[in-house]
Amino acid sequence: xxxxxxxxxxxxxxxxxxxxxxxxxxxxxxxxxxxxxxxxxxxxxxxxxxxxxxxxxxxxxxxxxxxxxxxxxxxxxxxxxxxxxxxxxxxxxxxxxxxxxxxxxxxxxxxxxxxxxxxxxxxxxxxxxxxxxxxxxxxxxxxxxxxxxxxxxxxxxxxxxxxxxxxxxxxxxxxxxxxxxxxxxxxxxxxxxxxxxxxxxxxxxxxxxxxxxxxxxxxxxxxx
Length: 224
Prior knowledge:
Number of strands: 8
CATH topology: Rossmann fold
Strand order of the largest sheet: 2-6-1-7-8
Radius of gyration: 16 Å
């Protein structure tokens, strides 16, 4: 395994499993850059909404994804703002409109290919904790450590609702849970890069656990 400052760590799992929270905490503890690949798909989705592009129009959504300038600006290792074509869109990426459309956008093979290359470039020199749904299986199959983080649907819905409220979005918990379950189904059944655990990933169920407890489990794996 590489030195800690050059580590490449992949964290995968379904929506609301705590990937972002744990990945940020791990990045901060180790001094690595935190990258959320989901935010990149959300940025493309936001641009599609703004441009009135139907994700079923493969040619148009592919051209749109290719034209997107998505930049992460780190204020510290665990905190990054997301810029889309020069605009800070971080607070808009958790909106219900983006939630409803991000899965169809992320299922387009050409969009995934474009963003996968961007993600690999971000990890090329190491020193990164990257989280998403296909990091350990597709984006960074050679990662030094792969974690597959999961939790019950009820707990994931509560976490997602809290995150949305913190971004100023009013939510209905039942609707959030239904959206999460629908997203799980679509992500696991898509033909390209479906949500699944890498064979060499360590599975951690975060249900009923504090973020600190999950972080401790991962740190023990690194020390083993």
